[in-house]
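Homework help board

Subject: predicted structure for assignment chain

Our instructor gave us this sequence and asked us to write out the predicted structure in token form, then describe one feature. I got the tokens but I'm not sure how to describe them. Can anyone check?
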Amino acid sequence: MLGTLRYMFELLLILIIVGLLFRRRDKRKKSRSIDAELHKMIEDVRESEITATEIRQFLLDIINDNKQDVEKFSDVRLRQASEMMERIGPGAFYWMTDIAATLAAGYAARINGIETNVDEAVGESATPEAIVRVVVQI
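My token output:
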């Protein structure tokens, strides 16, 4: 009887130890997966910032070309746009179209005498570059 009790106690102790080991291992896995998710989120934000910076710079390059009377749709700008499309994908096209729509809406509001947040940000001395910097925030 005493031997059976000892055997049951040892078996119970082993099961508790094994259970604790598995539980600890699961916590480490969960911790690693949370770290991986956080790392992915940070990386996604960085990629978005890089994309936004690249698109904003492209728009500023176009504005500068217009000021310098550079040929529209020049080979340099078309190559630059093509490279962006390859790297960023359709998101680049959509983002630029969204920016153009936002600028058009702002311009329409301005003509209709409605102030916008862009008016506040750029003040009286609005330039195309300043407006792009406000609209394309990173």
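Reply (TA_rk): Your tokens look well-formed. For the description, you could write something like this. Residues 2-135 form one domain. That's the kind of observation they're looking for.
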